[in-house]
Amino acid sequence: METVHIIGGGIAGLALAARLDPGRFSVTLYEQRPHLPTVGTTLAMWPEAQRALSELGILGAVRDRGAIITAGALRYPGGEPALSMEGEGLLGVSRTELLSLLDSAVPNVVRRVTERVQSVPTRTGLTVGADGVHSVVRQGAWGKRSAASATPFLAVRGVVPTVPSPEDVGEYWGRGEIFGLAPAKGGTNWYASFRSPLGPGRVDVEEALEVARVRYDQYSPAVQHVLSQASPENSLAQRIWTTPALGRYAKGNVVLLGDAAHAMTPNLGRGACEALIDAVTLGGLLNDLPLKEALAGYERKRVFRTQQMRLASSLMGRIALAQRMQPVRDALLNQAGRQVSRVKGKAKTSK
User: Fold this and answer.
1) pLDDT, position 88
2) For the chain, which domains are there?
3) Which of 115, 199, 332, 341 has its CA 20 to 30 A from that of 6?
4) Where are the beta strands (DSSP E) in the chain?
């Protein structure tokens, strides 16, 4: 039996523990939380992430507990659409449901340790850093220069029970701030991002909600209604952090997954998806190949793609949260919206 120490019991850590062959690996999973979180927003599962869930045997259960996301729009603060978008095959599932299903997929033989890991384990075998943006494993193996950096932006988000109207779904772009509404199972998933001095450590949720209500008091009635239903019991607030670029995710017998390797701003909605794909990719390679070959294959498959995603997400965030360049941004959105409308009109005519 080969030993694997997985540091972090979030999406990436649980998915890897579920994917590794229990007949080949002796796995220990370290997680500082004694229980799974009870509050979490909806995550969009793109087709590649859904394939990863299928490999873990839980895609059907995720579909049963999730909601299909088919359309939305980039909107001005008042709610007028600037650019309509149609999606196909996106599946929304709450983070808490996803974590619960991943947890249930972990074999019973996996050893669970509830503790906060303070340094990279010196034990034999493979050490996996799945411990998030502030990864102890990454900083221990890659050095202090790999420490996470705080952005100027706060993320406030949650789920409220009212189901959104299709005419309100989408992302509202203001001056240096965004607000998003999307359907969730039995309600509305919402998120807001804006510049704020709160934090950068623990952020008081009630204070963050009060700030958000003031920031968005001129937005559409749909936004106002959602914020009126938001409370510390169904919301989260935290500073947005990112990690620096890494040219490799493996060093010796240490490897990184998910946010520990490539934490990105949430503007593309791909962080959870890429963490899942990381875990399933690495697990499959470890099951089939010797360690050195498996780690090399994992880097070939994942480093370039995820670093591209990290950079693209950062660029999208700068555009969406623009302050000085807002008029130029909005003019480009108008132009793009007109072009999309013309293409749709030609398509209908040709039919």
Assistant:
1) 62
2) 1-34+114-148+243-320 (3.50.50.60), 38-97+151-242 (3.30.9.30)
3) 199
4) 2-7, 25-30, 42-45, 67-75, 81-94, 111-113, 126-129, 149-160, 170-173, 177-184, 187-195, 235-242, 250-251, 254-256
